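Provenance

Sequences were taken from public entries as deposited. Structures were produced by running a predictor on each sequence independently, with no templates supplied. The record for DUF3159 domain-containing protein from Microbacterium flavum is shown for reference.
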Amino acid sequence: MSSSDEKPDGRDAGDAPQPTASEIFGQALGGAARRAGMDPAKEAHTGHVVWAAMGGWRGILESVLPGLAFVLLFTLTRDLAPSLVVSVGIAVIFTIVRLVQRSPIGAALGGLIAAGVAAALALWTGRAQDNFVPGLITNAAYGTAFLVSALVGWSLIGLAVGFLMNEGTAWRADSRKRRVFFWLAIAWATLFFVRLAVQLPLYLAGTDEATTMLGTLKLVMGLPLFAPLIAVTWLAVRAVYPASSKQEDAPQA
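Predicted structure for DUF3159 domain-containing protein:
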């Protein structure tokens, strides 16, 4: 091979360009969104998208039942260990059922790991409120990530949608898309920070009553707030990416 066939960095001229960090990150986010049923490139009813993002009835049960079991048992017994065992046991059952049925176990396994880590921490410290520490950290981390991404002009929503729509980061050159993605990222950051603002004082209170209230509010501020924001996000993205089928279905002159 002649020297003219090589680039100054030693790579062959025919080598494919290496993906940038934003492209890799966007691909990861977009893949997660697609697996959750949120692909703006496809035609879908908003209700269907929200339902798919929540995982249907199974996803709702997997998300709610472990936490609900802990809150109910701890409220009635004030006994930490059995409450945690039942909560984690429910998550284990959901994961086993998915394995037996050979269905995707990502969400269930993630829930099981989160429940196991939270339970281990609470058992180690002997404080029931520590069962909610991973959730508080998650809200703080996600809220910060969405906020920072919006402020620096690289909205996480935009990165995910750009991958799904096969336009990479070209959306940053479109002021309308950039503005929509900015406010969507702010909305998601607000959701996580509101959860944190409401739940952190209850965690710091450290009483059994506050812990019960913390567990209850975690459930109330979970899917009931997640679902509407998913719908808003979907509608906003569809507004800046009109479905091509609508143009194809238009009557010909």
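The first helix runs from residue 21 to 35.
Residues 22-33+43-241 form one domain.
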